[in-house]
Design goal:
The complex is a heterodimer of chains A (about 475) and B (about 650).
Chain A (H helix, E strand, L loop, with lengths): L1 H18 L6 H18 L4 E7 L4 E6 L2 H24 L4 H20 L3 H10 L1 H11 L4 H30 L6 H7 L5 H18 L7 H9 L5 H8 L3 H12 L1 H27 L4 H21 L3 H32 L10 H4 L1 H14 L7 H15 L1 H25 L13 H19 L2 H13 L1 H7 L5
Antiparallel strand pairs in A: 1-2
Helix pairs in contact in A: 1-2, 1-4, 2-3, 2-4, 3-4, 3-11, 3-15, 3-20, 3-21, 4-5, 4-6, 4-11, 5-7, 6-7, 7-9, 7-10, 9-12, 9-13, 10-14, 11-15, 12-13, 13-14, 13-19, 13-22, 14-15, 14-18, 14-19, 15-17, 15-18, 15-20, 15-21, 17-20, 18-19
Chain B lengths: L13 H15 L7 H24 L6 E10 L3 E8 L1 H24 L6 H20 L3 H19 L6 H32 L4 H8 L7 H17 L8 H4 L5 H10 L4 H8 L1 H4 L3 H24 L3 H21 L3 H28 L12 H4 L1 H15 L5 H14 L9 H27 L7 H6 L5 H16 L13 H6 L13 H28 L3 H8 L1 H7 L4 H35 L1 H12 L4 H26 L1
Helix pairs in contact in B: 1-2, 1-4, 2-3, 2-4, 3-4, 3-10, 3-15, 3-21, 4-5, 5-6, 6-8, 8-11, 8-13, 10-15, 13-14, 13-19, 13-25, 14-15, 14-18, 14-19, 15-17, 15-18, 15-21, 17-19, 17-21, 18-19, 18-23, 19-23, 26-27
The chains are: A mainly alpha (about 475), B mainly alpha (about 650).
């Protein structure tokens, strides 16, 4: 029941918001919906739902909240609370609709993360694109149309490739239905060539969605053109589900295919990590900078996954969860900066630490967390992802670790340009609402950095549950 | 048994107290009257000092250290917990960090008086102490890395403390980026450790490493990778370039972080992993030779600097180089001993420099100093003791610790086949140069006729006692600290005996007693020789010879740090910036355009979409609908046949 509620509460709240007549109830309704979702997520340990959906096709409506899925759901739900609150405060044009679409995104994400049926997963995968496009198209900046078309082009191309694999995997493997267990029992014994082709379909879609080089161009434009408050960027950051698709579906079901693709994945992942970080070092547009930094993280996620090592795969999922908080938080910070100076051009800032010490301190903490400073959120995931990558390919790890250096340079350059230097005119320090939005994220950042063990253990359990085939594919592993 | 009943374990609370101090000042410091932020910060460190003393006393006479597992961190084939391990090595560092740290906190109360960032300063200083304490308390390489990067972040924020000036912000950035290069080495080394030993707990790594074959290739690789990390943090060539620039920070920061504590983290790391390094003569030799090369380079550069702090910065790099030689030849206790004595006299020298800068209202150029010994008598006398101590004058602290290093090099079995004799000769040369450049430093600042302008001289004053009392305490320590490590061949050596359970013991050669005494005599000779040469050049010759050299090409080259910065600009920074720029252009103009606008499929889909006139939402809804319809149709077809 909880699993169903987890999905229904944000969806129903979104629907109510869209049609709620009085503005006064928008805020309490939206925040209550987000909070309730989060509380449900906390209580959802092991919750599941399963019934036949389209029995003729062997499609079930099966959800289960456990392992990495639950960790991602919880973190996404937590981040969404403050994002919804921030959206209602900072968006002028139909804020309740933005909040509704944010909650719809959350519902879609919960569907993606908890689906235990491949077709159901695919349906959620597709449906969740809708709010992302609406938020961009409805509330974006002047050149949003081009960004929407580009996003849609990439996403649809990826989706069709995946659809072919989704449809083909069951008949080819002879699985009883599209449920995860049935597929896991049958698909890994497919012959390697078939696995490789099926994996290729999944990998293309997931690589677009991660994204990794050279399929990432949509990401940069989407972030640049999103609403300046940054709320849509947070939704986009939570929606970085390509890595999860590899982790939960493609790699366990098609271990031989994964093994065949691993060298390519490691190479492109490592290159993506260093490319994103290096470009971010010299970016002067705040949102494009964050988009490239985020791209760099996705490169690390990719090398962790394609290491096919339990530590690397789990690290990749932990990094996905952590970057929801840190990258998401930085996008909100970018919105708060925009509130102060009305632009995302870094050149317009400088010396903010003087007039806004608390705001700058909060931002700096998120920035350092996002570049993997230990003790903060991103480090455990990044460390384990790179550790796994090193075990699989020291060369890929060396390149990806180069991104760690570049990311550090990015952080201190950004700090120097925005918060340090001579202060030209003061700005307001953190306002109560901003503190209310950022403080929970900071607590989460510290929590994920200092005590990641519980989340990692849950993720590891999922690796092990779907793991024999993974480890078997690479001849032992650690 | 409750592990907290052991007083040694209480030291684990020291970083917590320092963190609390940092948080209090971060959140409430701006509302507090001076000197409250400084007092809060000093109290936090004082508590840490008391806990460290307790731990030190309670550890006496015990072989093994104390380990304490606090909470799980991660587990993948191996368990990694947040835990502390306190042994003799940790205890020495705890005492140094909190003891010297306390003096520098107290000194800072006066030095940072009326600075608008007073509370931020003390918050960061406490944050630094907390990170450094975590570094030395950690029982695993992961937690050690938390402290390792933590001190890097705190150091970065303190170097760029006065960041309205771009040069200061740039100095901080440089320090952070160069440190991150070292950190990358740390990460790679740690990954290889995990793959090799299936654990990241330091004691387990050491235990297993000592069972490996002597000279095993994997140990050498690990050793060299950790050397990269150590070189970044401890400013060893070629990663030393950040430390001279780091002098942009407030002078007490230079004393605490960039002389006494953080920069010794690299030596701590190698000493902590000494059982591993003792098994790999090749990696150890690389450590030693990197150390001696750095020591020489920095000593030459120190001779030509004109900034009162940069002379000391290069001196620090040079002394750290000697410590690297010591750990490289397996004389781990000697290296830690030199860390110990160096912390006192180098902190003293920096604080004396700070007192001078304070007295001269910001002047840092030694060409506009001179004659200050009469105007600032307490500062001058303390600085003299520090100068003599670092120069290696007999019976002062530096003499004993350097002698221990020389003996360690000469008697090394680890470096026997890797040029230990050459290392010895070069180390003596470095010691002589140390005496020379330190004589120059002292003479230029405190002796001769004043060269400052009359208006500055009129306002010169001795610093208040909050600043001079720490100087006097450190001066006392610079005199007596050496007696814990008398030459081991003839006298009781307390520090070596105390450290023995925590360090690998490498067999040493045992030359005849007269050779040992000859080494001592040589050590005395180079120290006095260096000072005498300094007296001849700078006092008797009034520096004319040095001035000729200093104005020539050689002097300019040395003043510019032997061209490392210029080399890096040409060979590293510009190419990387070029690659980054190229990537950005390629990403935007080639990849994006080609994929998004000229790939046929994209154009085709784009046109198809453009056919629908109304809002994009409807288009997408239609597309999704078509996709799902196709899916259902296809599934029905395939499902039926399966």
């Amino acid at each position: 029941v909880i699993a169903a509620l987890l999905l229904l509460v944000p969806l129903l709240t979104a629907a109510l918001l869209a049609f709620a007549p009085r503005a006064a109830i928008h805020r309490p309704l939206a925040i209550a919906g987000a909070l309730a979702t989060f509380v449900l997520a906390l209580a959802a340990e092991g919750a599941s739902v399963a019934f036949d959906w389209i029995p003729a096709l062997g499609v079930g409506f099966a959800l289960e909240a456990s392992g990495a899925s639950l960790v991602l759901v919880r973190v996404a739900a937590a981040v969404m609370i403050v994002t919804v609150a921030w959206a209602l405060a900072r968006v002028d044009d139909r804020p309740h609709h933005v909040a509704a679409w944010l909650l719809a995104t959350l519902a879609g994400l919960i569907g993606i993360f908890t689906a235990r049926d491949l077709l159901l997963f695919y349906v959620w995968w597709e449906l969740t694109l809708l709010p992302a496009l609406v938020l961009l198209g409805g509330w974006g900046l002047a050149r949003r149309r081009a960004a929407v078309v580009k996003y849609l082009t990439y996403a649809v191309a990826g989706s069709f490739a995946m659809l072919v694999s989704v449809l083909a995997i069951r008949p080819l493997s002879g699985a009883a239905d599209y449920g995860f267990e049935a597929l896991l029992a049958a698909a890994p014994s497919l012959d390697p060539l078939a696995q490789t082709w099926l994996f290729a379909g999944f990998a293309f879609a997931f690589a677009v969605k991660l994204p990794i080089f050279p399929l990432h161009a949509w990401l940069i434009d989407v972030h640049e053109q999103n609403h300046p408050s940054g709320v849509a960027d947070v939704a986009g950051t939570l929606y970085k589900v390509g890595g999860f698709g590899l982790f939960a579906w493609a790699i366990p079901l098609l271990p031989a295919g994964a093994a065949a693709f691993a060298p390519i994945g490691l190479a492109f992942g490592a290159f993506t990590a260093i490319l994103g970080a290096l470009i971010a070092v010299r970016q002067l547009h705040l949102k494009r900078l964050l988009a490239y930094a985020s791209l760099s993280h996705m490169g690390v996620v990719a090398v962790g996954l394609f290491s096919l090592q339990p530590a690397g795969m789990a690290g990749a999922m932990a990094l996905l969860a952590a970057q929801m908080v840190t990258t998401g938080g930085l996008f909100l910070v970018s919105g708060m900066l925009h509130d102060r100076r009305g632009t995302f051009e870094v050149a317009a800032y400088g010396g903010l630490a003087r007039s806004a010490p608390f705001f700058s301190g909060f931002a700096l903490l998120l920035l350092f967390a996002s570049v993997g400073v230990p003790g903060l959120a991103n480090f455990p995931g990044e460390f384990l992802a790179l550790l796994g990558a090193y075990a699989a390919s020291p060369a890929a790890a060396v390149v990806a670790v180069g991104a760690v250096i570049a990311a550090g340079a990015m952080a201190v350059n950004l700090n120097a340009r925005v918060f340090q230097g001579p202060a030209e005119g003061g700005v307001a320090d953190a306002k109560p609402l901003e503190i209310g939005v950022l403080a929970p994220l900071l607590v989460l950042t510290l929590w994920l950095g200092v005590a990641p063990a519980a989340g990692l253990a849950a993720i590891e359990a999922q690796v092990v549950a779907s793991g024999p085939s993974v480890v078997g594919a690479i001849g032992g592993g650690r | 048994v409750n592990p907290w009943s052991d007083p040694v374990a209480w030291a684990a609370l020291a970083p917590v107290v320092a963190l609390v101090g940092a948080l209090v000042n971060a959140f409430f410091g701006r509302r507090l009257q001076e000197p409250l932020p400084g007092l809060i910060a000093s109290t936090a460190v004082a508590i840490g000092f008391v806990l460290s003393v307790v731990a030190f006393v309670a550890l006496q006479g015990r072989g093994a250290g104390v380990t304490l597992t606090l909470w799980p961190f991660f587990a993948f084939g191996f368990d990694t917990s947040i835990g502390v391990a306190i042994d003799a090595l940790t205890a020495i560092f705890l005492l140094l960090i909190t003891g010297v740290g306390l003096l520098i906190h107290v000194y800072s109360i006066e030095y940072m008086r009326d600075d608008p960032g007073n509370a931020r300063y003390f918050s960061l200083l406490n944050l630094f102490v907390a990170a450094m304490l975590i570094l030395v308390l950690a029982d695993s390489l992961v937690l050690l890395f938390v402290g390792w990067e933590g001190v890097g972040v705190a150091s970065y924020l303190l170097i760029s403390f006065w960041n309205e000036t771009k040069a200061n912000a740039d100095a901080g950035r440089k320090a952070f980026i160069v440190n991150r290069i070292g950190d990358a080495g740390f990460l790679l080394a740690t990954f290889l450790v995990a793959a090799t030993f299936q654990t990241l707990t330091i004691s387990d790594v050491n235990a297993v490493a000592s069972t490996f074959a002597y000279g095993a290739g994997v140990l050498t690789t690990i050793g060299v990778l950790y050397l990269i990390a150590a070189a970044g943090k401890s400013a060893q060539a070629p990663l030393h370039v950040w430390l001279p620039d780091a002098m942009a920070g407030p002078t007490p920061v230079s004393a605490l972080i960039h002389a006494a504590t953080m920069v010794t983290a690299g030596i701590y790391l190698i000493a902590r992993l000494s059982p591993l390094y003792a098994q790999t003569p090749d990696a150890s030799a690389v450590v030693a030779w990197v150390g001696i090369a750095t020591a020489l380079i920095a000593a030459v550069a120190a001779l030509a600097q004109t900034d009162v702090k940069k002379i000391l910065a290069y001196s620090t790099i040079s002394q750290l180089g000697l410590m690297f030689v010591a750990v490289g030849v397996g004389a781990y206790a000697a290296a830690v001993f030199h860390v110990f004595t160096h912390a006192f006299f180098k902190a003293l020298l920096f604080l004396a420099a700070g007192s001078v800068i304070h007295g001269l209202h910001g002047e840092q150029d030694v060409r506009r100093m001179g004659g200050l010994g009469r105007l600032m008598p307490r500062t001058g006398r303390s600085a003299l003791i520090g100068t003599l101590a670092i120069a290696g004058v007999p019976l002062l602290a530096g003499f004993f610790s350097k002698e221990a290093i020389f003996g360690g090099i000469w008697n090394s079995t680890l470096a026997e086949d890797h040029g230990s004799r050459a290392l010895f000769v070069l180390a003596l040369l470095v010691a002589g140069m140390t005496a020379l450049y330190m004589f120059r430093w002292y003479h230029r600042v405190f002796c001769g006729a004043p060269r400052a302008s009359a208006s500055v001289l009129a306002r010169v004053h001795e610093s208040p006692s909050a600043m001079t009392v720490p100087l006097l305490i450190l001066a006392g320590a610079s005199i007596v600290a050496g007696y814990v490590g008398l030459p081991a061949f003839a006298f009781p050596n307390a520090i070596k005996a105390f450290l023995a359970p925590a360090l690998a013991s490498v067999p040493t050669l045992h030359p005849p007693l007269w050779v040992e005494w000859l080494l001592v005599a040589l050590s005395v000779a180079v120290a006095t020789g260096g000072l005498a040469l300094g007296w001849w050049i700078y006092h008797r010759g009034a520096g004319r010879l040095a001035a000729r050299w200093g104005e020539g090409g050689g002097g300019r080259f040395a003043r510019a740090g032997l061209g490392f910065d210029a080399l890096y600009r040409v060979a590293v920074v510009t190419p990387v910036e070029g690659v980054a720029a190229g990537m950005a252009v390629a990403d935007r103009d080639l990849l994006d355009r080609s994929l998004a606008s000229s790939v046929t499929a994209a154009v085709w889909i784009g046109r198809l979409i453009a056919l629908w006139q109304s809002g994009f939402v409807r288009r997408y809804a239609l597309a999704t609908f078509l996709a799902v319809a196709a899916l259902v149709a296809a599934a029905a077809f395939m499902g039926g046949s399966a």
